[in-house]
């Protein structure tokens, strides 16, 4: 049997285990998968600039967001129906996140109940993902259940006024039907007004929307294009991150997801101003291969890779990862053109 050394190894193994419809659902993307591919390849266009001869004997990956402490700056994005990947479903993923002390965002399209997930991982930090429906009572009921079950934040997904994601059905909350194409920022204001939980908006891809979100009082932003599953041909998330970071000016924390499969990707996103980096499909590959232990293996693998990248780049803490440690490949082209022109 092949060794499982990288997220891509887990992906390949999961592809050989999953029934084809489940594999297609998880790996699939909108349109011609341009954004899906861009999410991945855009990381490869960014180069790391290491600092040598820094004493990196002691390293710390811990990070804090909205007053919550985590063992590394990585979290699990909401993905629907984990029981497609493994019989233990969301319970396994939640337990793995609890053990690794990282945040887990439970999708509103769960294949287990919110309360069962809370019971399975009582000490884990869990956030509840939400879609807004025409009937606000549906969304409000989910918020109340999440509050009751001890969830620590609400993640409102805003990038699918119409649903391109091929949701099959939800075991617990049968909401697969009507997405609310009439949702606006006023609904986000309403959401902020009905709960004391922090509100995190997921699906911001422009500085204009980021500024709007900050203005109405959201607590954090997730730069996300839904893993390329909604509007094909939008930019990669890592491409738009610098613009959003510059506009937000540290007023709220910024999380990014999309295309992250390596420790170096996490390093690059942090260097470009993200406070945390989330992963969607990667934990599902681990879950498919080995249930809870498989999700933990994915998280440990990324933790090792990030730690190793930090050591080799001369960073002892997450805060020491700064933007002068990355450069886009286009910059090298420009520099060499200028230098060449001077000769
Ligand atoms: C199978 C699958 C189901 C998803 N379901 C949801 C969902 O229910 N709610 C949501 O906000 N995002 C959902 N997403 C998007 C993820 O939260 C995340 O933005 C995306 O997977 C990140 O990209 P990555 O898979 O390349 O890491 C889903 C993604 C996948 C792959």
What does this structure look like?
By secondary structure, this protein is an alpha/beta fold. It has a single domain, classed as Aldolase class I (TIM Barrel, Alpha-Beta Barrel). It is built from 12 helices and 12 strands. The protein has an 8-stranded parallel beta sheet with strand order 4-11-10-9-8-7-6-5. Strands 1-12 form a two-stranded antiparallel ribbon. Strands 2-3 form a two-stranded antiparallel sheet. Helix 10 links the parallel strand 10 and strand 11. Helix 1 runs antiparallel to helix 11. It is globular and about 65 Å long. The protein starts with 6 loop residues before the first helix and ends with a helix. About 45% of the residues are buried. The structure holds flavin mononucleotide (FMN). Flavin mononucleotide (FMN) binds next to helix 2 and helix 11.
For the secondary structure, the number of strands is 12
Low-confidence stretches: 167-173
Bound molecules: flavin mononucleotide
Average pLDDT taken over every residue: 94
H/E element string?
A: HHHEEEEHEHEHEHEHEHEHEHEH
Query: How is the largest sheet built, in terms of strand order?
Result: 4-11-10-9-8-7-6-5
- Which radius of gyration do the C-alpha atoms yield? 20 Å
How would you describe the shape? Answer: globular
The total count of helices amounts to: 12
The CATH superfamily name is: Aldolase class I
Q: Class, according to the CATH hierarchy?
A: Alpha Beta
Fraction of residues in helices? 40-55%
- Total tally of structural domains: 1
Task: Find the CATH topology.
Answer: TIM Barrel
Strand content: 5-15%
| CATH 2nd-level architecture | Alpha-Beta Barrel
Query: Which structural category fits the helices and strands?
Result: alpha/beta
**Largest sheet entry:** 8 strands, parallel
User: Cα distance, first to last residue?
Assistant: 55 Å
């Amino acid at each position: 049997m092949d060794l499982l050394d990288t997220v891509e190894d887990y992906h390949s193994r999961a592809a050989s285990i999953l029934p084809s419809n489940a594999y297609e659902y998880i790996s699939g993307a909108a349109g011609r998968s341009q954004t899906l591919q861009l999410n991945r390849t855009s990381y490869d266009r960014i180069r790391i600039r290491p600092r040598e001869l820094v004493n990196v004997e002691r390293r710390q990956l811990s990070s804090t967001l909205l007053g919550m402490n985590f063992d590394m700056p990585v979290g699990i994005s909401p993905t629907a129906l984990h029981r497609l990947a493994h019989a233990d479903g969301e319970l396994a993923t939640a337990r793995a996140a609890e053990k690794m002390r990282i945040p887990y965002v439970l999708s509103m399209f769960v294949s287990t109940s919110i309360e069962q997930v809370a019971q399975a991982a009582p000490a884990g930090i869990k956030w509840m993902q939400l879609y807004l429906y025409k009937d606000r009572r549906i969304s409000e009921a989910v918020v109340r259940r999440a509050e009751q079950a001890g969830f620590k934040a609400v993640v409102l997904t805003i990038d699918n006024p119409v649903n391109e994601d091929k949701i099959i059905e939800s075991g617990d909350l049968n909401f697969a039907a009507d997405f609310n194409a009439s949702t606006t920022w006023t609904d986000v204001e309403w959401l902020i007004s009905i709960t004391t939980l922090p509100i995190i908006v997921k699906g911001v891809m422009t500085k204009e929307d980021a500024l709007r979100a900050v203005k109405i009082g959201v607590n954090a932003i997730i730069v996300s294009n839904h893993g390329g599953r909604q509007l094909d041909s939008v930019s990669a998330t890592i491409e738009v991150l610098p613009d959003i970071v510059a506009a937000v000016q540290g007023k709220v924390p910024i999380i990014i997801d999309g295309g992250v499969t390596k420790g170096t990707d996490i390093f690059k996103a942090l260097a470009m101003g993200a406070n945390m980096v989330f992963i969607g499909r990667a934990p599902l590959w681990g879950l498919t291969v080995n249930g809870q232990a498989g999700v933990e293996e994915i998280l440990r693998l990324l933790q090792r890779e990030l730690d190793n990248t930090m050591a080799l780049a001369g960073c002892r803490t997450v805060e020491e990862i700064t933007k002068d440690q990355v450069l886009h490949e286009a910059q090298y082209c420009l520099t060499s053109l200028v230098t060449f022109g001077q000769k």
